[in-house]
Design goal:
4 domains; eight-stranded parallel beta barrel; two-stranded antiparallel ribbon; 13 strands; EC 1.3.1.88; flavoprotein; Aldolase_TIM
């Protein structure tokens, strides 16, 4: 408990490690809204240890970004130790990810897909705890039974784990089958071990956090999705989404990150606004945005659209069916995203299968209708959906030019500088030593590269021979 109290400062409100989401700018925003401890995103230990660029980007931090824990994933004890040694001067602890249930973790054989390999996990935790000057912590998911979960937690504690985060879901609870986390497993682990235990799962607001602390006895609560949809969760607030969005964009300007991170955060902050039919154009615009100015412009548009309702200058009325959009709070306020229950998801899948089987048995096809209720074919329905996704795109933009190649009867390449089809263009470039950017045929460029490579190779060979002669002469003189 000394590590949790004295080193970390007894944090209760904790932001989880989130891939492409808990970068420096978002961590600073979360701390501004009450977060007491943050984790870096999950870092790949092998890539971290060998790639300086990846390492520098991953360790981006500042004085305000404390306390901080760096999280690694991997399955090789030596590589994980090497990565941890490179990171230990930039954080207060190294966390081992044993909870990621995603497909990428299964392919890479790390995260929750190591939870059955206890000898390997014991080796990893013990090796890091012996050779690092800072503590080692772990983040895990529960097993099907409390007995096995407790045994798992004790193994990690005995190996040298100084703090344990327990996610109350199993490895299989993810995506549409996520369901609720079982806090009783967290409580069982907390009662069985002598190290600090943090609870993870089911936190959508501060009332959930307080209830979790009371029911589990955990020292702190880790929040992931709840933080992304409402970063002011720790302050009992539901601010209009444009306020944290604008603050976040200002932080991104100071501490840059990939546009995909920014886009993902804005989609979550405005999750309840963008699906409205009125805002379809804003959703499309945000999906295509790729500069900070464009992101700021979209946030300002949403603010101008909904600020009169927020101030009370206009009266807000829901314009869609309650069963599809049933919110207690107005949609422009930051608020939780509530997933569909696994039971409902399974029922929908079963209903679709039954409907398909019924049509197959009856020999009937599914009926499609346009926006006015007129029957149309499946092909026409797909076309309408494509147009609705990209309403600004001309309907006939996909039609190919009818112009023909200058040398043959094949269609002309639309971007070819020589007005040829691809075959004729390739022949011309090969014969005349040319490049065609339109067809991406780079004969001239590749030939020049081959010449340079050959010259460099000859120089290297000559230098090696000369160095060898000098070495032989020196040996003879000796």
């Amino acid at each position: 408990m000394e590590f949790w109290k004295n080193t970390l400062g007894a944090p209760v409100k904790i932001v989880a490690p989130m891939v492409d989401a808990s970068e420096l700018a978002w961590r600073l925003l979360s701390r501004k809204y009450g977060a007491q401890l943050c984790y870096t995103p999950m870092l790949h230990s092998a890539l971290f240890s060998r790639d300086p660029k990846y390492r520098n980007e991953a360790l981006a931090s500042c004085e305000e970004d404390k306390p901080l824990i760096v999280q690694f994933c991997g399955n090789d004890p030596q590589i994980m130790l090497e990565a941890a040694l490179l990171a230990q001067d930039y954080c207060l602890a190294i966390d081992i990810n044993l909870g990621c249930p995603q497909a990428i973790a299964k392919r890479g054989h790390y995260g929750a897909f190591l939870q059955d390999e206890w000898p390997l996990l014991k080796e990893i935790v013990s090796l890091l705890s012996k050779h690092l000057k800072i503590p080692v912590t772990c983040k895990v998911r529960r097993f099907e039974t409390k007995e096995k979960t407790i045994e798992y937690a004790k193994l990690l504690e005995d190996a040298g784990c100084s703090m344990l985060t327990v996610h109350g879901r199993t490895r299989e609870q993810k995506g549409p089958l996520t369901g609720l986390a079982d806090w009783s497993y967290v409580k069982a682990v907390r009662d069985a071990v002598n190290i600090p235990v943090i609870s993870n799962g089911n936190i959508q607001n501060m009332q959930d956090l307080e209830r979790c602390l009371m029911e589990t006895g955990a020292v702190g609560v880790m929040v992931a999705e709840g933080n992304l949809y409402n970063p002011a969760l720790f302050m009992y607030q539901n601010p209009p989404a444009w306020e944290p969005a604008q603050e976040y964009l200002e932080l991104v300007q100071q501490y840059p990150c990939p546009n995909s991170y920014v886009r993902g955060h804005l989609f979550k902050l405005f999750h309840h606004v963008l699906p409205l039919p009125l805002n379809n154009h804003l959703r499309i615009e945000l999906g295509a945005a790729n500069t900070l100015d464009q992101f700021k412009n979209i946030v300002n548009k949403i603010k101008c659209l909904y600020e009169p309702y927020h101030r009370g200058d206009k009266n807000w009325e829901f314009t869609v069916e309650p069963e599809t959009y049933n919110l207690v709070l107005p949609p422009w306020l930051c608020q939780p995203y509530v997933r569909e229950t696994p039971e409902n998801h399974v029922k929908k899948i079963e209903d679709k299968v039954k409907e398909a089987e019924k049509r197959l048995n009856e020999g009937t096809k599914r009926n499609y209708e346009d926006n006015e209720g007129n029957p149309i074919s499946r092909k026409q329905m797909k076309k309408l959906r494509r147009i609705n996704r990209r309403p600004e795109k001309p309907e006939n933009s996909h039609i190919r030019s009818l112009e023909k190649c200058s040398n043959c009867e094949n269609p002309l390449g639309s971007k070819c500088g020589f007005y040829l089809c691809k075959k004729c263009c390739r022949d011309k470039c090969f014969t005349e030593n040319l490049d065609c950017e339109g067809h991406r045929i780079l004969v001239k460029t590749r030939r020049e590269m081959a010449v340079r490579y050959s010259q460099n190779k000859d120089k290297t060979k000559a230098k090696t021979i000369n160095d060898g002669k000098k070495l032989t002469t020196v040996k003879c003189e000796l």
